C-alpha cells in the first residue's frame, strides 16, 4: 500500500515552533517543525513517553509546509500583506511560590544540591511567538496509521496546540486525506482562498538545487525519542518564496 498524505491546517493568534531553543530564550522558527507536528500527532493519539518505534516510522517521511498571509485589495487586485512581527513575551519564573507548601516549593528554582538559590532563584525568560499565522502542513503517514491518526485529530485524547500550550488553534486542524501529495497541496490553496490568504513561502523536505530553492538549511528537528530524555537528528529543508 502507498502512504497517505494528510492535510493539516494550523491557524491561531499565536504559534511557536522551536527547533534549537535552550534555557531562558525560547525562539521560534517561522514555520512548523517536524518535531512540533509529530508532537501534536502524539498528543492527539494519547501516545506518551519515548515513542521511539512510532517516531522511527515517520523519520524519513515527507513534510511540506506552506505559509499563507492575509491579503488586501489595492486597485481591484488582491495583494499579500506583510507578516506580523514576532511577539516576544517576557516571563519571570520562580517567583511567588509558598516555601511552606510542599507542592509549590518544588517549583522554586534551586541549586544542583537542591538548596535555595542566592537571591531566591527567580529567572528571566523570553519566549517568541508568531502572530496571526496560518499554515497548511502536508505530512506523509504510513497507510496503516492514517485512519488512527485521522480519528485522533478529530477526537484528540489530549489537548492539541500549536507549539506551546497557550497556542490554541482557532480552526479545525485535520482537513483531508489524499493519495497524492499534489492533491493535498491544491486543496490547501482552496482553503486559503476562502480565508482571503495567499501563499507567502513553502518549506520542502530535503535539499533542492541552488537554482530551485531560495534558501537551504539544516534543522535539528527530527525526533528520535520523546519523554524526559528527548533526542533529535538533523534534516535539510528548502525554502521557496512565492
Structure description:
- With 242 residues, the chain is α+β, with helices and mostly antiparallel strands.
- Helix content is 20%, strand content 38%.
- It is built from five helices and ten strands.
- Strands 1, 2, 3, 4, 5, 6, 7, 8, 9 and 10 form a ten-stranded mixed β-sheet that branches.
- Strand 3 and strand 4 form a beta hairpin.
- The radius of gyration is 20 Å and the shape is globular.
Residue runs with pLDDT of under 50 for 5 or more positions: none
The DSSP helix count reads: 5
- Structural class by helix and strand composition: alpha+beta
- State Rg: 20 Å
Strand content: 35-45%
Total beta strand runs: 10
Apparent shape: globular
Mean pLDDT: 93
For the record, give the distance between the C-alpha atoms at the N and C termini, rounded to a whole number.
Answer: 34 Å
Q: Main beta sheet, described?
A: 10 strands, mixed
The helix-strand sequence is EEHHEEEHEHEHEEE
Assign a percent range to the helix content. 10-25%
Entry summary:
With 242 residues, this protein is α+β, with helices and mostly antiparallel strands. Helix content is 20%, strand content 38%.
Fold blueprint:
Layout: E1 4-15, E2 25-26, H1 34-45, H2 52-58, E3 63-74, E4 77-80, E5 87-93, H3 102-105, E6 123-141, H4 143-154, E7 174-178, H5 181-194, E8 197-205, E9 215-225, E10 231-241
Parallel strand pairs: 2-6
Antiparallel strand pairs: 1-6, 1-7, 3-4, 3-6, 3-8, 5-6, 8-10, 9-10
Identify the notable features of this structure and list them briefly.
242 residues, alpha+beta, ten-stranded mixed β-sheet, globular
